[in-house]
Amino acid sequence: MASKLLRAVVLGPPGSGKGTVCERIARSFGLQHLSSGQFLRESLGSGGVWLHPCCFPASHSHFCAAACPGFPRTLGQAKALDGICELDLVISLNIPFETLKDRLSARWVHPASGRVYNMDFNPPHTQGVDDLTGEPLVQREEDKPEAVAARLRKYKDAAKPVIELYKSRGILYSFSGTETNKIWPYVYTLLSSRIPPILSDEEH
Asked: 188: domain CATH number?
């Protein structure tokens, strides 16, 4: 077990909480965030597809977990990823359409830093401005209500063959719900069967 190498990806539509889940995986299982987005973009020739930082283990752990939220996004990317590593598990987040639409439409960002706020559950201290700089927040064109439905349809069409691929390999684990806090305990339990946690579920 000590030499076990674990590779995982987190899939889900825009606004499903992929980044939050990966951050919790990193904290709970003693992982560090390393920016491997550029490496994967170059390796896969994906033409600038944005990737969150991957999670890799702290030096005290013999386990390795790569948790890349939102990637691969297409069947072509999934097959290209096969050429780099063999995945052990794929976590798929299934969130209702209306929940995603509300989350995305309430999202505002600080352009210079990329900090993201949600007006419903993570608002800035002062409406319309960044907490740290006081600079104006903006709503990205892709997060405006009229654009959200098209984004979600596009994701569904592209993700379906990717999900079917990993399902056929027996490595797909799907979690459904409207709140990350309610989905997280199930993700934690799944990973605890593969990696020794350093934080209990309650310590979040």
From this structure: 3.40.50.300
Give how far Cα 32 sits from Cα of 67, 108, 140, Å. 11, 27, 29
Of residues 187, 158, 170, the one with CA closest to residue 10 = 187
What percentage of the chain carries pLDDT values higher than 70? 75
> CA-CA distance, 67 to 53, in Å (whole number)?
8
Across 71-79, average pLDDT:
81
Domain assignment present for residue 47? The answer is no
Residues 6+ apart with CB under 8 A from 44: 77, 80, 81, 84
CA gap 93, 174 in Å, rounded: 6
How many domains does the structure of the chain reveal? 1
Residue whose C-alpha is closest to residue 183's, from 66, 96, 58, 109 = 96
Q: Which domain holds residue 146?
A: 8-40+65-193
pTM for the complete prediction? Answer: 0.74
